[in-house]
Amino acid sequence: MDTDKKILPLSDSVQEALAITKRGVDELIIESEFAQKLARSEKTGVPLRIKLGLDPTAPDLHLGHTVVLNKMRQLQNLGHQVIFLIGDFTSMIGDPSGRNVTRPPLTREQIELNAQTYFKQASLVLDAAKTEIRYNSEWCDPLGARGMIQLSSRYTVARMMERDDFSKRFKNGTPISVHEFLYPLMQGYDSVALKADLELGGTDQKFNLLVGRELQKDYGQEQQCILTMPLLEGLDGVEKMSKSKNNYIGITEPANTMFAKVMSISDVMMWRYYDLLSWQSIEHIAGLKKAIEGGANPRDAKVALAQEIVERFHSRQAAEDALADFVNRSKGGIPDDVPEVALSGAPVGIGQLLKQANLCASTSEALRMIDQGGVRIDGTVISDKALKIEAGTFVLQVGKRKFAKVTLSA
After folding, report:
1. I need a labelling partner for 405 at 20 to 30 A (CA). Which of 79, 164, 168, 248 fits?
2. Beta-carbon contacts of residue 158 (< 8 Å; ≥ 6 apart)
3. What are the structural domains, with CATH classification, of the chain?
């Protein structure tokens, strides 16, 4: 921000907006600059332009993706213009963030297929009517070879090598392709094209976001501020939420599944989810913590969180039904949405049957689950690993959440 500009006073509403912006964030760069942007916006009535770029690398979003979308919605509620940028051009380069190997780029067909569902799903969090949707091919394609070379001249190799994953790969002798240097440049150029006041991203995006800030300065624009959000841990409480690690909660998953997955997180991790996913006030969450410290059951707070999340992506009724289903399951009951499977070959061994019903990955896993008391037929625990199952219809259960209604014929 131009240091010659007069410093504006921060009104109570600006300070409140700043507090809302900072809730749950990892870093706000530079806070004093953003406070002045907020003050100027209040004075002029011109909303800030707030950018979030997402590459459509997979067709579905999970709760980890919604951490930054929640922040966008909060800023949207404050009256600012949010821009949902679909990186259809940058997806074809491939973002090297957090990678130790070159990431394969997507094809145009893959990108278009994934992009079709992105905004529809993001609209479950954002106010779609007040969201500007852009595709970065709009300004990246017209650059052409000459424009790309000119853009590349605005950033040095030394600056690129300051990036942690690049420096580690270089030190380890792991190949870095030249096109990977183009990704942060193109993401930064998006900020120039959109004249962004603030750009949001995960902590793994910090370098790319700062490139945008530097490029804006080089193009004579006021520099954007940077807001990074923490990466949400998955159901295991260790690794970041990821479909590839199977520790995710998809935002289009059935309500009962979503509810049960939230209930499976630890009591400690629950507060992390509250901070990053809940729309409850900071004061309300502090009150829940205090109540639990005073002896209240943490399960009640987790139920409230699970219901809030299910209601957001489904409905209030779905949240109530999911709670009833979860209570029923916890008492050993059978849920309503059990998949039906038709199999033949009776009589068949219990281990083989569990594998064929897709309840266990292998017969050895099935036998381990029997040893652990985790297998039931029509609610009765099975302990005999040599059991042969005759023809008939029955409900198989493995663990707390895997069910199948099996019709077995000879």
Report:
1. 248
2. none
3. 12-229 (3.40.50.620), 255-330 (1.10.240.10), 340-409 (3.10.290.10)
